[in-house]
Amino acid sequence: MQHRIIVLGAGYTGASAAGRLAKRLRREDVAITLVNAEPDFVERIRNHQLATGQDLRRRPLSEIFAGTGVALRIAKVTGVDADRKTVAITGANGAEELEYDTLVYALGSGWNSQGVPGTAEHAYQIAGRTGALRLRERLAGLDAGQAVVVVGGGLTGVEASTEIVEARPDLDVALAVSGSLGDWLSPKGREHVRKVFGKLGITAYEHTTISGVEPDHVTTADGKVIPAAVTVWTAGFAVHPIAKATSLEVSGTGQIVVDPTMRSVSHPDVYAVGDAAMAKGAGDKPLRMSCASGIPTASLAADAIAARLTGRKVPDKTIGYFNQCVSLGRKEGLIQYVTADDRAKQAVLTGRLAAAYKEVICKGAAWSVANPTLGMPTRRHRVTHEQTTV
């Protein structure tokens, strides 16, 4: 009987894990099923480009996984029973239940309203393709001089605000951050972001907490009203809620707690990757929610599953960082070099070269997903163990 592996979610992490498993294991020994709600792979790290009117290449999952041995199911995951080892889905055939021997949970994350009044009703988000397209339509309908306020000073907020003003220099764009602009960067990195913001005419509201969102303005915690025909909310991510509703051990954020091989500490036949996992990297620090964390965790999980099933040595790796890549529009960028545990170093790369560097990174990530059986030697081994509990 084939060992049944189900991968939930076909973002960067889920798609990468499924493709890597297909390269590691013999088709006659395993049945790999990839479940995703959308028929296309979405380049999430380019959603700020999609929102500003740029057209991105369509990448159908059916084409990506054709001939790989991975079975694709376009369906919404509605539940996981980690004790019965089943997944509930709803798709073209209605409600179904799938059984698994090994589960890879890669449902990722979405936007986080932080419970701020009016955010869910009036704010726009770019955590998903649907949200990015909705924002795209709204931005296209704005008249010159109207105000756009982006809330959140992390990578997504900085990239969104610069992309919007570059595409629509006739708009009044501002970024509201709870701390200092770019406070997670080195002094050189912060200086460059400020320089680009000044050149593009973006207003930075620093040390500003947004306490309410209305259709035409936002309100700060100290009572200030900031005009906003459009509010773009990028203040953090929230993981998919399904894991928290299961018997899996999860963190306070709803992430599945995993060991160094991305295996659930409570259910050894479940692996979690990407934003869905509470995993630790270099310096025993939790990995941040990002593509930079997600793809390495997917690779590690796939290799660990393959090793356990084939009786080979389980990988012993610690995930560390090298840099943070920030696009500042299409012509500017910032590469912030970091320590393995993600602390900013003094060294940075800026300007057009940094923008080109970031583009290479984005294309490389998409290429690795779109070519799941290329890019690394094929070493398919025979399954010798029925379960991954060994």
From TrEMBL:
Could you tell me the keywords of this UniProt record?
FAD, Flavoprotein, Oxidoreductase
Taxonomy, superkingdom: Bacteria
Gene Ontology MF term list:
NAD(P)H dehydrogenase (quinone) activity
GO aspect biological process, one term? aerobic electron transport chain
Asked if the keyword RNA-binding belongs to this entry, the reply reads: no
Task: Enumerate the spans annotated as FAD/NAD(P)-binding domain.
Answer: 4-283
Name the SUPFAM superfamilies on file: FAD/NAD(P)-binding domain (SSF51905)
| Name of the protein | Oxidoreductase
Which species does this protein come from?
A: Nonomuraea turkmeniaca
